[in-house]
């Protein structure tokens, strides 16, 4: 009984000391940033993530450690957004087609033949309306940090002929999880099937699907050209990315760390976006040289036929996306 007060003091003192040393330890430890993505390391996105790691760790020595996980190693398509919101990863860069559960506006980028080329995509992303979209999912806990380019999509199948929309009628195509893309394939009488990126090669190889749409760099790095007969150079749409982070985690970072990460992101974005076009060109040439799938050039009339067939998709989604946003994107073509 006599020693009770002393014991209390000791207990409080000890827990104080413990708490203090734990926080001192935490302050010494770098903040770990897991950056997960689904493509190969030698693609535009893979190289952007690697660049971000290098610059962030150089600008914030000892303060951050960036761990990059390519090829759906950590989380695949179906899980990465959820993992980000749960705090299991801190950065991801899904293609713009994969946000439709979180916002209808970003579906804009999936409208077929919306942008004439990647310069137009870039002009729109850097415009006021484009930048606003980076913040359009804040109420869902997602903060957009940057747009990263991949490139224009091409269409491939396991058939010898792929020139006009009627050649793809009745075929099964793998699509990303996007309702706009689903409508796009239905517009020419095909059967779209939503599948995670990591499952595409096998689905093509085993004939679960007949074809798919993707950029040259994704087709080459995943070897899709080895299990497809024809790739038509349609340039009918775009695959680009939004680098997103968990808004709450981001807002809770020490100010100097956040500023350093912003700088690293800006540098990685310039690097990745400057490289994307060259990487796609290079991979297109590699596909041609590999002589597995035949690369088909389309005439202006062929392209016009695809464009006309896919046109009704715009009207169908205009209400969800917003006519003003569609118009702003079209202005970037001028
Ligand atoms: C796809 O699923 O086809 C692409 O979005 C993969 C990617 O991230 O480029």
Class derived from helix and strand content? alpha/beta
Domain count: the total is 2
CATH class of the largest domain: Alpha Beta
In angstroms, what separates the terminal alpha carbons? 87 Å
Coarse shape: globular
Q: What is bound: which ligands?
A: (2S)-2-hydroxybutanedioic acid
Assembly category: single chain
Record field, number of beta strands = 11
Kindly report the name of the CATH homologous superfamily of the largest domain. Bacterial extracellular solute-binding protein, family 7
Beta-strand content bin: 15-25%
Key descriptive features of the protein:
disordered N terminus; six-stranded mixed β-sheet; alpha/beta; 2 domains; binds (2S)-2-hydroxybutanedioic acid; D-Maltodextrin-Binding Protein, domain 2; 11 strands; single chain; 334 residues
Structure description:
- There is one protein chain.
- The protein has two domains: 6-107 and 119-149 and 240-275, Bacterial extracellular solute-binding protein, family 7 (D-Maltodextrin-Binding Protein, domain 2, 3-Layer(aba) Sandwich), CATH 3.40.190.170; 154-237 and 282-331, D-Maltodextrin-Binding Protein, domain 2 (3-Layer(aba) Sandwich), CATH 3.40.190.170.
- It has helices at 4-28, 44-59, 77-86, 118-126, 128-132, 179-187, 200-205, 216-221, 247-251, 255-290, 300-310, 312-321, 323-331, and strands at 31-36, 64-69, 91-92, 142-152, 154-157, 172-175, 191-194, 211-214, 230-232, 238-246, 294-296.
- With 334 residues, the protein is an alpha/beta fold.
- The protein contains 13 helices and eleven strands.
- The N and C termini lie far apart (87 Å).
- Helices cover 47% and strands 17% of the residues.
- The protein has a six-stranded mixed beta sheet.
- The longest helix is centred in the C-terminal third of the chain and has 36 residues, at 255-290.
- It is globular, with a radius of gyration of 23 Å.
- The structure holds (2S)-2-hydroxybutanedioic acid.
- Residues 38-39, 95, 150, 176, 197, 214, 218, 239 line the site of (2S)-2-hydroxybutanedioic acid.
- Residues 38-39, 95, 150, 176, 197, 214, 218, 239 line the site of (2S)-2-hydroxybutanedioic acid (LMR).
